[in-house]
Amino acid sequence: MLATIQKQQNSYVVKFNRPLSHSVDAVWAVLTENEKLQKWMNNLEIIDLRKNGKIHFNMHDGTNAYKEIAIVDYAEKEVLKFDWGKDTVRFELSPTSSGSILILLESIGELTEHTPKDLAGWHICLDLLSDLLSGTVHEEFPMEDWRKWFVEYKQLVDDIEKI
Predict the structure, then answer these.
(1) 3-class SS at 76?
(2) In what order do the strands lie in the sheet with 12-20?
(3) Are the beta carbons of 30 and 129 closer than 8 angstroms?
(4) How confident is the model at residue 62 (pLDDT cuts 50, 70, 90)?
(5) Is the pTM of this model over 0.85?
């Protein structure tokens, strides 16, 4: 399912809504335990899991370089929000009768030509997260799928910019 973008006064909020047939505990584990997290988002590494804690975004360029990301909001098994460049990413998790619902909210200050690339990346990462919960681990990032979603998100961003 394609994310939605809402224009706010001086920013945009992108919302990915993923109903999952897995418990809050299982989903929280793939969001916060490094050995599971890195199977769907291999750049991220939780260093200090708490509000005002930190995450490393590992560059994977052979230099061991990373960017430090601040965790700006945290509630165990409910909320994980962190800086994402000039923007923020917030995961919200809640139980449902059939498992759980995971919402990813990205607050974006300004739309750029990189925005649809980022959104297609999040879309694929959430697919990988869902697959991991169902027992499938992908050895490589599915670039063909990313290209397909990039076209969709490029159109979505173009449409929002016209408003």
Answers:
(1) coil
(2) 4-7, 12-20, 99-108, 87-96, 79-84, 66-75, 54-58, 44-48
(3) yes
(4) confident
(5) yes
